[in-house]
Amino acid sequence: MPDHDSHDTYDRLIALLDTARVGYRLIDHEPEGGTEAVCALRGHPASEAAKCIVLRVKVDRRTTRHVLAVVPGDRRVDLDAVRELFAARYVGFSDAETAERLARSVPGTVLPFAFDPGLELVADPDVVTRSQLYFNAARLDRSLVISGEDYARLAEPRVERIASPA
């Protein structure tokens, strides 16, 4: 994916936050996309991070949906819970090319926002209740922190229990 697309996604995020007059803080750090490593660089527990994963959901033989699952950084996506949520036959991780196209960013920088209409956003309740929610801001070298409440208001995710212990 060309680098300019990630910058476009970053610019769109900042414009959204500024337009909504949401309080946020940017954190510059060494380039890192792994949850544990970037949490250490930012100086917070992994439970305060938003782990964002693009899933492929096969509802039936003809219908495939794509879901952006957002869970706390110290947890994993419960694929069975997502499968039940969508009454699907199969749920798995999306291929990298599709994930990058829909998320409009590279792995490790996926935002907890769905800017593509082909991507359905589902967040675990433990994400939206965080007083501080950290995530890479469509860049490996910059992160953002906002309140879970502001995140939920702006991103408007479907809030469902989709996380399980790591």
TrEMBL record:
**Which Pfam families does this one have?**
tRNA_edit
Task: Return one GO MF term.
Answer: aminoacyl-tRNA ligase activity
Q: Domain YbaK/aminoacyl-tRNA synthetase-associated: where? A: 29-154
What are the record keywords, sorted?
A: Aminoacyl-tRNA synthetase, Ligase
Which InterPro entries does the entry mention?
YbaK/aa-tRNA-synt-asso_dom_sf, YbaK/aa-tRNA-synth-assoc-dom
Q: What is this protein called?
A: YbaK/prolyl-tRNA synthetase associated domain-containing protein
List the source organism.
Answer: Streptomyces adustus
